[in-house]
Amino acid sequence: MVTDLRGAAARYPADAGLRDLVTDLRAASEDFARLWDGGTVAVHGSGSKTVRHPEVGTFTVDCDVLTAPGGDVRIVAYTAAPGSDSAERLKLLNVIGTQVLSPVANEPRGIL
Q1: CA distances from 62 to 86, 96, 107, 111 (A)
Q2: Sequence-separated (6 or more) residues with CB below 8 Å from residue 80
Q3: Residues 66, 47 contacting (CB under 8 angstroms)
Q4: I need a labelling partner for 111 at 20 to 30 A (CA). Which of 1, 57, 101, 104 fits?
């Protein structure tokens, strides 16, 4: 998110409210100040994905994609709201992933 804000600050250098926000965030957070001083600019995209998993069923997760301009690297993070049904299914996948499962005959398998 810091890289998104840096991109906005570059696009709108005369925006006093944006400059004040950056100043306030730098004062409130050492982590923000460190990241801001790093100078990285990237593009952030978000959306949602529906997962159909044979063991835990169908659920929806938030999908955030961070890309760095000029490079081919993409970081994708899938998350779910704490306490939601989707979060519980993700936790179950974490447990299932440590077990050896036998596939059901003729049933497709996979995530996404």
Answers
A1: 10, 21, 26, 15
A2: 59, 60, 61, 62, 86, 87, 89, 90
A3: no
A4: 1
Name the residue among 23, 90, 22 with its Cα closest to residue 51. 90
Within the chain, where are the H helices?
A: 2-11, 16-28, 30-38, 85-96
**Helical H segments across 45-97, by residue range:** 85-96
Q: Which of 35, 93, 90, 82 is nearest to 101 (CA)?
A: 93
What is d(CA 103, CA 11) in angstroms, rounded to the nearest whole number?
52
Q: What is the pTM of this model?
A: 0.48
How far, in Å, CA of 29 to CA of 106, rounded?
53
Q: Taking the mean position of all CA atoms in its chain, how far away is CA 46?
A: 7
